[in-house]
């Protein structure tokens, strides 16, 4: 597939196509083809790592609320931008198919190597940022990262606060518990839910999250505090 068709599939209207050529070029390929007009992707990889961390940090800061401390947010960010997370994004973007590798690296299976794909994803993010700016890059990252992002946030706690609360209420003789969605805001790739938890038809706590389920968990957690 040509780089032009690839970018069109990703809905990227490029301005400088050589940035994307560079992002998808491994150093081994550049060593074997020194006459190509662009460099390999290592410098872009360095920059893209910082951009991705910033976008995810901002998202967590805005979405997780004041009840989450710095240490908790740092752990969540580490899980989101982990090698596993970057592998998810590499698969979503079909990076492996487009990556240019030298013959030696190709023979040893570098096209499927997690670290190689993670590096290429970070380089590609940097190319998008340089070419299209931060606003577009944020939308691009969050749209393509959404499934992984929500998955991490859904599993942020090993405790099932909803079940714990239900059992506590049953022991105290209170049985009626339900959740009501108060609002859903934001674009499709960046939904934000607010819910109210009712106990015996009386509002007991409010919760927020990137999905209805995570917002309900947040409300149950606050009711238990």
Structural notes for this entry:
By secondary structure, the protein is mainly alpha-helical. It folds into 2 domains: 154 residues, Ribonuclease III domain (Ribonuclease iii, N-terminal Endonuclease Domain, Chain A), CATH 1.10.1520; 49 residues, Double Stranded RNA Binding Domain, CATH 3.30.160. The protein is 61% helix and 11% strand. It is built from 12 helices and 3 strands, in the order αααααααααααβββα. β2 and β3 form a beta hairpin. α2 packs antiparallel against α9 and α6 crosses α10. It is elongated, with a radius of gyration of 22 Å. The termini are far apart. The model has no long low-confidence stretch (mean pLDDT 86).
Tell me the series of helices and strands, N- to C-terminal. HHHHHHHHHHHEEEH
Instruction: Please report the number of helical segments.
Output: 12
The CATH topology of the largest domain turns out to be Ribonuclease iii, N-terminal Endonuclease Domain, Chain A
Structural class: mainly alpha
Strand content: 5-15%
Q: Gap between N and C termini, in Å?
A: 55 Å
Radius of gyration: 22 Å
Strand order of the largest sheet: 1-2-3
User: What does the largest sheet look like?
Assistant: 3 strands, antiparallel
Q: What top-tier CATH class of the largest domain fits best? A: Mainly Alpha
Global geometry: elongated
When the domains are counted, the total is 2
Please provide the count of β strands. 3
Q: In CATH terms, what is the architecture of the largest domain?
A: Orthogonal Bundle
Percentage of helical residues? 55-70%
Mean pLDDT: 86
Instruction: Spell out the CATH superfamily of the largest domain.
Output: Ribonuclease III domain
**Uncertain residue segments:** none
């Amino acid at each position: 597939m040509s780089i032009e068709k690839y970018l069109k599939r990703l809905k990227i209207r490029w301005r400088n196509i050589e940035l994307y050529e560079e992002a998808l070029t491994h150093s081994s390929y550049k060593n074997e083809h020194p006459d190509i007009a662009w460099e390999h992707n290592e410098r872009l990889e360095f920059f893209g790592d910082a951009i991705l961390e910033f976008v995810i940090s901002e998202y967590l800061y805005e979405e997780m609320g004041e009840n989450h401390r710095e240490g908790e947010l740092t752990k969540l960010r580490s899980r989101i931008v982990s090698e596993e997370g970057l592998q998810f994004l590499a698969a979503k973007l079909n990076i492996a198919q487009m990556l240019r590798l030298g013959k030696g690296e190709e023979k040893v299976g570098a096209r499927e190597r997690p670290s190689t794909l993670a590096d290429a994803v970070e380089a590609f993010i940097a190319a998008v940022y340089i070419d299209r700016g931060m606003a577009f890059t944020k939308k691009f990252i969050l749209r393509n990262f959404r499934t992984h992002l929500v998955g991490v946030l859904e599993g942020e706690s090993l405790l099932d606060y909803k079940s714990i609360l239900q059992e506590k209420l049953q022991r105290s003789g209170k049985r009626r518990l339900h959740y009501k969605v108060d609002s859903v805001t934001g674009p499709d790739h960046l939904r934000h839910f607010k819910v109210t938890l009712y106990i015996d038809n009386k509002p007991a706590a409010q919760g927020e999250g990137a999905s209805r389920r995570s917002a309900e968990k947040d409300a149950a957690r606050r009711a238990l505090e």
